[in-house]
Structures are given as C-alpha cells and as structure tokens.
Amino acid sequence: MQQNSTSLNILVVCTGNICRSPMAEGLLRQNLPARLKSRVQIASAGTRAQEDLPAEPHARTVMAEWGLDISGHRAQQCSPKLIRQAHLVLAMEREHQRFIRGNAPASGPKLRLLGEYGADSAQPEIPDPYGQGLFVYRACARLIRNCLPDVITEITRLAGGDTSS
Hints:
By secondary structure, the chain is of the alpha/beta class. It has helices at 20-31, 34-37, 57-65, 80-85, 94-103, 134-158; strands spanning 8-14, 40-46, 88-91, 111-113.
C-alpha cells in the first residue's frame, strides 16, 4: 500500500485474505467514483493469512459474475505497517478488530467493522463463507456490496471531497 500526500489508504481485513477481504477490495475499487480513483489506494490483508495464496475459487467466480477479475489477488498478512499506513481500516469481524488493536493500539479512530456501514448495522459482522457453497459466497458478496454506499461516503469525507455526484 503506497502512501503519499495525495492518497488515502483503505485497508480491508478478514481472516485468511482469500474470501471476504479480496471481494470487498474488488467491489470497493469497482464502485469508487472516478474522481476518487487516483487518490484512493485500496488493499486487503488477513489476520491469519498464508502469504501468496490466491482468492478462493468461489470468491473469484462470484466476482467474475459481477464483472470483476480478482484472479491476480494474493493473500498478505495484516501487519502493523499496513495498519499504520491506512486512513480507514475495515474489519469483517470483532475478532479482526481485536487483532488490529493488539498490533496497532493507536488504530482505534480509523478502525470500523465493514457491516457498521450497511443497512443492517445491528448485525455488523460479515460472516466467513470459507469452505461453504457458492450461494454462501454470493450472499456474503451481497452483504459487502450493501455496505459500499456508506463506505464510499466516508471515504469521500476523509478525502475532503464533495459527497455529491
């Protein structure tokens, strides 16, 4: 994840960085308004990632159904450096928040559960589809996608931009 004076860094975190966070990274990148694409860097990582694993086949399939190619994704471990570089860290579960706080105690203000942005913020955790069928991956991707309008509003605010258009 690069950081410079004009970029805003977003980090999406799950467990293995092969299901939820690569889907969220791809969907966020796809849905980011054109005016922000050059200013926002999006990365994902896992709290227990095995470095260099590709995204799960079902995750790749669901993203392909939605016009996204995440076949080049490779898992990376969530590190204190990635957390420090991020302006916004989006975790899938409370367990991930605990990991992040333990590795970067100052991360509090920029750390949120992705599901807090969704219409069903009473259930802010995004369940892990790993090892389950394609329909579960599709449901997971829909939960992620439903959070994106509010996440993009937050990113726009952080970038100092106008939330219209």
